[in-house]
Amino acid sequence: MRRFLRFLLLRPVLWAARKFDSNPDKVRIYDALTKLFNHILNNPGKLGPIVDFDGQSGRLIIFSDQHKGARNGADDFAIAAPAYLEALKYYNEQQFYFINLGDCEELWENTLSKVKKYNETSFAAERAFVQREAFIKVIGNHDLYWDNDPLAGMELEAVYGQKIKAWEGVVLRTRINGELLRIFCTHGHQGDANSDGNWFTKFFISRIWGPLQSYLQINTNEPSTNAYKKTVHNEIMYEWSAEQERILLITGHTHQPVFESLTHIERLYRQMDIAKGLQDAGTIKKIQEETHLYQDRFNNLVFDYKEMLPTYFNTGCCCFSDGDITGIEIRDGFIRLVKWESKGQSPGRTVLEEMPLVEIMDRIRK
C-alpha cells in the first residue's frame, strides 16, 4: 500500500514542497527574529524567559537537534545516544544550566508515545536538570507538537516529573566589564514559511505534512540536509546578529556547527590568509594537509572572513552519523564549541574552538 501511495502522490507532494519551499528568505527571517527577541524582552515568560548569569562563574551548555526517535532505521539519534548521555552526566555533575534548543524529539516521523518508550534513559538524564531548576526546553520545527497540541503541557509534566513549558526562545543576560551582553538563543527555523507561520500552518506541518512525507519516504530537502540552504540560512542569521547592538545569536536547525560566525572551513580559510601574511610555512602546510579532501571548495572561498564579527554561533547537532555530538558551552568567562565523541564505551569531550567573552565584547562593541 505504501509503495502504491508513494507512486500516486510523489509528484503532487514534490510539487507542493517546491511551491511552499523553505528556501531561506532574508526579510522573513529578519522579521521573525526581531519580533521574537523583542517579545521576550518586553514580555518575559510568554514566548521565552530572560535568564541572568555571571559572565565569569556561570556555566551553561546548549545542545540541539537530537531528533530522538524510535530506535528504527530512521532514528538518527540512536548512534549518538551514548555520547549524549555521557555529556549530560558530566554537565549535571558540574552544575551546568542546560538549554535544549529544539528538534529534541523527532515528532514528524514518530508518535510521542514511541519516542518516550525508546528514550527513557535520555529523558531521565534531562530530568536531573529539571529537578535542579536548571533546564530550558526550546521548540524546533520537528517538535512543534510542544507548541500546538492541547495535551502538550500534560505530556511535558509526565516526561519531566513536574510542570515545565516549552519556549520559542530564551535571552541570556550578563555583564562583561560592566557592559550588558545579551545572548539570544532560539532553534533557528524562524522565518521558515513551512514551520514558522500561523497556528494552522504549524499544526498542518507537524501533524499532517511531516508524517505524510515520512510515511511516503519522500525527502524534500530541508536546510539540515541541503548544503546550499544550510549555508544561506547561516549567512542570514549572521547578518541579522551583526546588525544588532551587543547581541550574540545562538541557533541550531542546520546541523552545521558555527563558531564566532564561521564554519570550520571558513575558520581554516581565515587562518590560512593570516598565515600567508605572516609567511608562516608551518601553519600553511598544516592547513593544506587538513583541507586536501575538499581543496576545490576551499580554494573558491573569496569572502574576507577577517572582517566578520563574532556574533553568530550554531550548536551543530546531537545526531551526527558517526555518533558524535556538538554543542555550545559557556564557562569560566569563555564560550566554546565542544564535541563529545563516541569512543567505544567511553565517550569524551573535546574543545574544538574557544574565545573569551571579554574578547567578543571588545570586537562587537559599537
Question: Could you outline the blueprint of secondary structure elements for this entry?
Answer:
Layout: H1 2-19, H2 26-42, E1 50-52, E2 59-63, H3 81-93, E3 97-100, H4 112-118, H5 120-131, E4 135-138, H6 145-148, H7 152-160, E5 166-167, E6 169-176, E7 179-186, H8 199-216, H9 227-242, E8 247-251, H10 264-278, H11 281-291, H12 295-299, E9 312-314, E10 325-331, E11 334-341, E12 348-356, H13 357-364
Parallel strand pairs: 1-6, 2-3, 3-4, 4-5, 7-8, 8-9
Antiparallel strand pairs: 2-10, 6-7, 10-11, 11-12
Helix pairs in contact: 2-9, 3-5, 10-11
Brief digest:
The chain contains 13 helices and 12 strands. The chain has 366 residues and is an alpha/beta fold. 41% of the residues are buried.
Question: Can you describe this structure?
Answer:
This protein is of the alpha/beta class and 366 residues long. The protein has one domain (2-236, 248-261, 309-364). 42% of the residues lie in helices and 18% in strands. It has 13 helices and 12 strands. The strands form 2 sheets. The protein has a 7-stranded mixed beta sheet with strand order 5-4-3-2-10-11-12. A hairpin with a 2-residue loop joins strand 10 and strand 11. Helix 3 packs parallel to helix 5. The longest helix has 18 residues, at 2-19. It starts with a helix and ends with a helix. 41% of the residues are buried.
